[in-house]
């Protein structure tokens, strides 16, 4: 049913490096109840120690930073995660504006004449991931708004059914 293909690029290794550079590992190791050197080693792709799934979930939960999960998904050539718990009904316009801003960042980088450095590539990927996340949150906000109003939900269902029956004729 699914055809996952592991990327030949080290997406997860890059995510581990970024995560380690972004967070105070001493404080995070205490919160995760592990030794700081163990955490450093597990986030260093050159070391033999690797993060377990449970540790990755714990670190993501403690920091609310999806970098590790996004790196894992990118390694499988999948889109970034969308934390549904971030969604708020009243933030639809904010999600759309943020997604538009991220598309602007991508457009600006597409017309850049300079060499694409590792930092530039990271910025492009981060802008794309944030844009995807915001677009999905906007879609979920609209879906939630529709389904919270029974009359509107019934109307949408009726129109969807009508569209399906017309398409079958």
UniProtKB/TrEMBL annotation:
Domain of life of the source: Bacteria
Annotated Pfam families: Phage_CP76 (PF06892)
Protein name listed in UniProt: Phage regulatory CII family protein
Source species of the chain: Pantoea rwandensis
